[in-house]
Amino acid sequence: MKLVLETKNIDKHFHKPKDFHVLKDISLKVGQGEFASIMGKSGCGKSTLLYILSTMDTDYTGELYLNGELITGMPQQDLSRIRNKHIGFVFQFHYLLSEFSVLENVMLPAKKLAEKSHDEIEQDAMGKLRMLHIEHLAQQKASRISGGEKQRVAIARALINNPSILMGDEPTGNLDSQNSENVFGIFKRLKEEHGLSLLVVTHDEDFAKRTDRIIEMEDGRISS
Ligand SMILES: Nc1ncnc2c1ncn2[C@@H]1O[C@H](COP(=O)(O)OP(=O)(O)OP(=O)(O)O)[C@@H](O)[C@H]1O
């Protein structure tokens, strides 16, 4: 199986207010087309780990590989490009720009990457909206759509640069059960129809049970 994400022996300490060994010897692998979830008690280090895996935090020891390439130690400028191109991120809160239209929000990460023309990016963005059955919302202001719709727009935005992996930090944490189910269905379809890899931190056992693999964390370690 082709590996999309791999870590070797990741350790991290917080130094303030006192030394705290938050991540301990984290080695994990996520293959192409794999849908994995991370579970564990509040405070066990899940978000801290996801921050490192998504290349936003570089203050750790050990190694992080994306598509077989060593990411650890790369200059910030390269990291930001790799992040934008290869990693999609969906948070608990959608972080859409409320005064921009849905379409403009989805186009933003592709504009930042600046590899395609405005028209191509617009076509791609409409394609993602169609895929998520929200193309009718394209011209709506982001502030004027429902919570479930906002999360689907956030997923479309995370997919606009065709990432290798989609990461989620409690992506259904703010949603009711019907909208959570919709998001699970979308993730499953992305895996099955598009071969996307997904790694999702969740407290929702029902969600996690239906992923390919649950990575259990306990006190900064992977326990199973
Ligand atoms: N910047 C920081 N400085 C010091 N300690 C921190 C910092 N950020 C997080 N922590 C601590 O590190 C531990 C792990 O936090 P983290 O947010 O990764 O946990 P989590 O498993 O994602 O929790 P939750 O499920 O509640 O979101 C917690 O004890 C937290 O208080």
Automatic annotation (TrEMBL):
<protein>
    <submittedName>
        <fullName>ABC transporter ATP-binding protein</fullName>
    </submittedName>
</protein>
<comment type="similarity">
    <text>Belongs to the ABC transporter superfamily.</text>
</comment>
<dbReference type="Pfam" id="PF00005">
    <property type="entry name" value="ABC_tran"/>
</dbReference>
<keyword id="KW-1278">Translocase</keyword>
<dbReference type="InterPro" id="IPR003439">
    <property type="entry name" value="ABC_transporter-like_ATP-bd"/>
</dbReference>
<keyword id="KW-0067">ATP-binding</keyword>
<dbReference type="InterPro" id="IPR003593">
    <property type="entry name" value="AAA+_ATPase"/>
</dbReference>
<dbReference type="InterPro" id="IPR027417">
    <property type="entry name" value="P-loop_NTPase"/>
</dbReference>
<feature type="domain" description="ABC transporter">
    <location>
        <begin position="5"/>
        <end position="224"/>
    </location>
</feature>
<dbReference type="GO" id="GO:0005524">
    <property type="term" value="F:ATP binding"/>
</dbReference>
<keyword id="KW-0813">Transport</keyword>
<dbReference type="InterPro" id="IPR017871">
    <property type="entry name" value="ABC_transporter-like_CS"/>
</dbReference>
<keyword id="KW-0547">Nucleotide-binding</keyword>
<dbReference type="InterPro" id="IPR017911">
    <property type="entry name" value="MacB-like_ATP-bd"/>
</dbReference>
